[in-house]
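Figure 2 data, in text form.
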Amino acid sequence: MSDFLPIDLPSKCRVYDGVEPGSISVRAYQGQDEVLLAQINPINLERNYFEVLKTVIQGIDPGLLTLGDRLYLIICECINSYTDTITVQTVCSSCLKQIDVPVNLKELDTVYLPEDFKQPYEVILPVSKQRVMLRLLNVADEVAAERYSEEHADGMLYRYARSIVCEEDILQVMKNVQKMAAKDFLRLVAFQDKFYHGPVMSYTFNCPKCGAKEETDVPFRFSFLFPDGSTIEESFGEGI
């Protein structure tokens, strides 16, 4: 019996040539994956998690996964491999008291790519009026940007330069991006934000202190990838 199960990604595979919805499958983490997951830190996150993706997903080159699909996959893996509930600390805007909010990851909403979305996608830069073709950033872009940032200070520019689809090589594209007006560069950023797809990382709850309806952000944390001591104790300690 296969450990892999089909998964419906927020992109609906609309940006993956030759990949049909329902043809991608994943499995929960295993001990062999924990070795890499335990070594992940802010410096090697992209490269180490990419190696994990190679073993837990089938039906697509993991480097092609959009960032929204990857985040969705990370949350699903956390639910299936570890726990579906995490605790977020926040301050109630009504009673101004600090509270612990149990967040059920299964209840996070999901944003899907529009049905008519196609890439490359043409945008007009507001200052130069230049027309550029853009695509959504993917895992391979993040891995390349992480490597680039080890030796260069302008890693953010490099990251978004990779979203430009053209015949020029990346070095020439970088030179063009470095000379862009700030408003033009932010158009590149806005494109990625506009077509965000994936889990909505916010959660609505009732304050346990005053009962007010509140909403809190659910920030990305490394315990999504590898649980910390408190998560292990809360989720797996019962019965020991």
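Caption note: The longest strand covers residues 85-91.
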